[in-house]
Amino acid sequence: MRVQKIPTLQQTYTGYAAKLILEDDSVFDGIGFGYPSEVAGEVVFNTGMVGYTETLTDPSYRGQILCMTYPLVGNYGVPSFNIKDEYGLPKFFESDKIQVKALLIHDLSDIASHWSCTRTLDQWLYEEKIPGIYGIDTRALTKKLRVHGVMMGAVVVSENAIDEARLKRALSSAKYEGLNFMPEVSTSEPKEYGDKSKDCIVVLDTGVKYSIIRNIIRTGYRVVRLPWDATYEQVMSYNPKGVVISNGPGDPKVCTDTIKTASKLIKESTPTLGICLGNQILALAGGANTYKLKFGHRGQNKPCVDRRNNQVYVTSQNHGYGIDPKTLGKTGFKVWFENADDDTVEGIEHKSKPIIAVQFHPEASPGPYDCMYVFDRFKEIIGNGVKPEPAVAAAATTKAAKARPKKKTTKIAAKKKKKKEVRRGAKR
Ligand SMILES: NC(=O)CC[C@H](N)C(=O)O
């Protein structure tokens, strides 16, 4: 019997001169791969071990230079965009292109080998005109970012000798903070996904990942994806059962149009789910404040506590901003999830309206699928109409609670209980 050979491809677009310089003047020399060019952006690190095709295409990374802390990258190559899921969405990518400005890794695998591999990582970067550097000390870089906080950086990959002074000039004029990336990542026109006969969920696209659309369809809806600046009236013209405000890049405060629509969604008690940027937007719309984290949360094993039942879930995250819990007071929102590492807010829920939001990524991709239940809870909330389910109901879904035999509250048992109470009262 003949077995199909696993495709094995050699990296080819490598070996250029390459340099990264940071705001604090530190310089990292490495070997360039991908597309020879010069870029500047905010340098961030992600601690995930797998999923570079999903990570690199996550629109939330727009404007950022990404350092992956896992040391060996590229070994399984890049699959074809033509591999689709059952809903016709690309299976291994979160948008249609690479979103990071540059990629920084410790070691690029010499060969790529996987059944789905159709090109190498360096080839993909080359074709999408993205520079990459390998051979730098990513551990030293990450430690620097952890101590100092995220910094602006400039990357050059060049076929010729590197002009460091020029790179420094590029760095000095680079900006990330306060930029509005929405026009670059959002859809410019309405798009529809899923079975037309199903009820509709509108997604306000502030840089939505395909996996979010996939999970909304999975819970039994069709999706209408609207531009980030769609008004409340435009959203409602589709008669949606609920609205999802998606993930996305940059500071949530610059998304003023989406915040305006979110305020109206809150006012009208429209069932709404916010994810990552959407969580921050809902908080701002409710009157809370957001702030920039020192170096953010980017990884696939971030522990979060669901405050309704104190269970800890392993979550996938990619955010550089957070909600200030001290400002939630008069908003009507309370904390739903907390990060077990540093107690930052990882989700909020409205106390009286059908509105919930998470800072992490319930859709994962890449990362663990532990929090898929967030989508199912959203469906329950839509079904119930007004109020999110109480905490007790959530606790009853835990394994321990299920295993516990239920007490029978028969009439006799109730009478006995009453007698006991009367006796106790007499003793006092
Ligand atoms: N993944 C996201 O939606 C990120 C949200 C926001 N841009 C942040 O960095 O916090």
Automatic annotation (TrEMBL):
Single Gene Ontology MF annotation: ATP binding
Chain ranges of the Carbamoyl-phosphate synthase small subunit N-terminal domain: 16-156
Pathway(s) this gene product operates in, as recorded in its UniProt entry: Amino-acid biosynthesis; L-arginine biosynthesis; carbamoyl phosphate from bicarbonate: step 1/1; Pyrimidine metabolism; UMP biosynthesis via de novo pathway; (S)-dihydroorotate from bicarbonate: step 1/3
Keywords: Amino-acid biosynthesis, Arginine biosynthesis, ATP-binding, Glutamine amidotransferase, Ligase, Nucleotide-binding, Pyrimidine biosynthesis
Assembly, per entry: Composed of two chains; the small (or glutamine) chain promotes the hydrolysis of glutamine to ammonia, which is used by the large (or ammonia) chain to synthesize carbamoyl phosphate. Tetramer of heterodimers (alpha,beta)4.
Family indicated by similarity: Belongs to the CarA family.
Protein name as catalogued: Carbamoyl phosphate synthase small chain
Native species: Nitrososphaera gargensis (strain Ga9.2)
Encoding gene per record: carA
